[in-house]
Specification:
By secondary structure, the protein is of the alpha+beta class. It has helices at residues 3-29, 56-69, 85-88, 106-117, 136-142, 238-252, 341-344, and strands spanning 41-45, 73-77, 93-97, 121-125, 145-146, 153-159, 173-178, 183-184, 191-196, 211-218, 221-226, 286-291, 297-301, 305-310, 315-321, 332-337, 346-351, 359-368, 371-384, 397-399, 405-408, 449-454, 460-462, 473-475, 496-498. It is elongated, with a radius of gyration of 33 Å.
């Protein structure tokens, strides 16, 4: 009888002991299985706007199998709309699998920049370097841009780094068959993992320093790229798959949570918040516009029309027709309001005057009661030009916050005889085809961005920091600019910010 109560007590304690031991073993054997440390998750993106590789389905399947075998989760998409903060927060790394062309719009580009800056990872495979040529940030992230390739052939790779997970499994050399890319615009901060021996195949254009795979930390995140993987057979090769897996593991890193508070790229507003309203149509070669404090808009057309748009009436009227030389590309090219327009009613125009004098004027005018006072003109700067031939006229005017005026000038050179090369033609009578006279000449104001500080008397000062000018050069009003200038022999009447 006395034994039974003891057995009963033990039977009640046994489940508690069993559960405690089970929990302890679970904590020891499976330390990563907690709500605070979920499995790594990657997104494979394979949208193409150019050449489409036939191996993309095999690549997606192979990466999915790799992830499943290594405790990672994977999603795949070709929908660029998935590049938004809410969705990207789910992923430790994004894989661009043989993407080509412009695959993201500006809003999506900004979202991806913010993702990387928050600590996200990037993996580029093969044609990822043949993507987004107009997005310099992306080129820096990938580490370089595609620049052609020879036929598929066998070649020998040299392993430069055996400590990285993408190459740890390889020997000193790796011989395989693939499509071997040449590159341009390589990011010097990238650390090379594989180089190709150009002596081992035909078609290399980069010499002894021809990388094929690399990695680097970039703008807050981690990036890995490999040019390998053109053939469908690549995605069944154990060594290549281990190479890809190591790159993914590097990009995933230690799985820290993304920190969007450290992003530099601002969030772009939702485009659906905006409504496009057409204010004016059927304009004739509009060049520039500016806005008055009362909301009216002033705009210019190359043939000399100065127009005013009144938002209260919705009408656009010609305020003044400025006589201009409008042959080739010359004419009325630049417009800006003075920063103190409400007090002085000054506007600035850059135009080609009629007459035999081959110059362009930067002039200041009074603009009162929606019309130009032609008699008030003060010619601030003359830019000597040639009018024998077109092209490349230009004259955008802008003021900065300090009241400094910027004027961009065209190089005044015909480019159509140089067949895509720099327009250099030193033969007699071919000056109109030779940009050495203008953009390449530090003593000529054409093909430059000029910066001056206009003064009330119509003169100006060249601010400190301008190129090719003494400090605080002061020029008299309406002082003509001599030209063309012999290079390096004399100071021009206005100096350039950028040449």
């Amino acid at each position: 009888m006395s034994v039974l109560p003891v057995l009963n007590r033990r039977s009640r304690l046994f489940p508690l002991v069993f559960i405690s031991v089970t929990l302890l073993l679970s904590a020891i054997l499976f330390p990563a299985c907690s709500s605070d440390d979920p499995p790594a998750r990657i997104l494979v993106f394979s949208k193409t706007e150019g050449y489409r590789h036939a191996n993309i389905p095999a690549g997606i399947a192979a990466i999915r199998k790799l992830c499943r075998a290594n405790g990672m989760l994977m999603d795949s998409t070709e929908d660029a709309a998935d590049f938004n903060e809410k969705n990207l927060r789910r992923y430790n790394a994004v894989v661009f699998l043989s993407t080509t062309g412009d695959v993201l719009d500006p809003t999506q580009e900004a979202e991806f920049e913010r993702y990387i800056q928050a600590g996200g990872g990037f993996v580029g495979i093969h044609a990822a370097s043949d993507t987004e040529y107009g997005w310099a940030w992306f080129g820096g992230l990938v580490g370089g841009y595609f620049n052609g390739h020879p036929d598929i052939q066998d070649a020998r790779l040299t392993v430069e780094d055996h400590d990285h997970p993408a190459t740890r499994h390889l020997g000193k050399e790796w011989k395989r068959r693939d499509e071997w890319y040449n590159f341009r615009d390589l990011n010097p901060s990238a650390k090379v993992l594989l180089r190709i021996d150009e002596k081992s195949y035909e078609g290399g254009t980069m010499g002894a320093d021809h990388p094929m795979s690399w990695y680097h930390e970039y703008d807050g995140g981690r990036a890995f790229y490999t040019a390998l993987g053109h053939t469908e057979e690549s995605f069944s090769e154990p060594e290549f798959l281990q190479h890809i897996l190591g790159g993914i593991k590097y990009a995933v890193g230690d799985q820290k949570r993304l920190k969007y508070g450290q992003c530099r790229t601002p969030e772009l507003p939702d485009p659906t918040r905006f409504v496009k309203t057409v204010l004016a149509s059927e304009l004739t070669e509009p060049m520039e516009f500016d806005m008055f404090p009362d909301g009216k808009i002033i705009l210019i057309e190359r043939r000399g029309a100065i127009k005013i748009f009144d938002p209260n009436t919705g009408l656009i009227n010609i305020a003044y027709m400025l006589p201009v030389h409008s042959e080739h590309e010359d004419g009325l090219m630049g417009l800006a309001l003075d920063p103190n327009w409400e007090k002085n009613h000054w506007i600035y125009l850059y135009y080609s005057p009629l007459g035999n004098k081959e110059v362009n004027y930067l002039s200041r005018f009074n603009f009162v009661a929606d019309t130009l006072d032609r008699a008030s003109e003060v010619v601030i700067l003359e830019v000597a030009v040639q009018r024998e031939e077109c092209c490349h006229a230009g004259g955008c005017i802008e003021f900065d916050e300090q009241g400094l005026l910027y004027l961009s000038t065209g190089d005044n050179t015909n480019p159509f005889a140089s067949e895509g090369y720099a327009p250099i033609d030193e033969r007699p009578g071919r000056g109109a085809w030779d940009a050495q006279k203008s953009s390449a000449n530090t003593m000529d104001l054409r093909g430059k961005i000029l910066r001056i500080q206009p003064l009330a008397d119509g003169s100006y000062i060249c601010p400190a920091g301008n190129l090719f000018a003494d400090k605080d050069v002061h020029m008299a009003a309406a002082g003509p600019t001599p030209g063309p200038f012999p290079a390096f022999h004399r100071q021009p009447a206005a100096s350039v910010v950028l040449g």
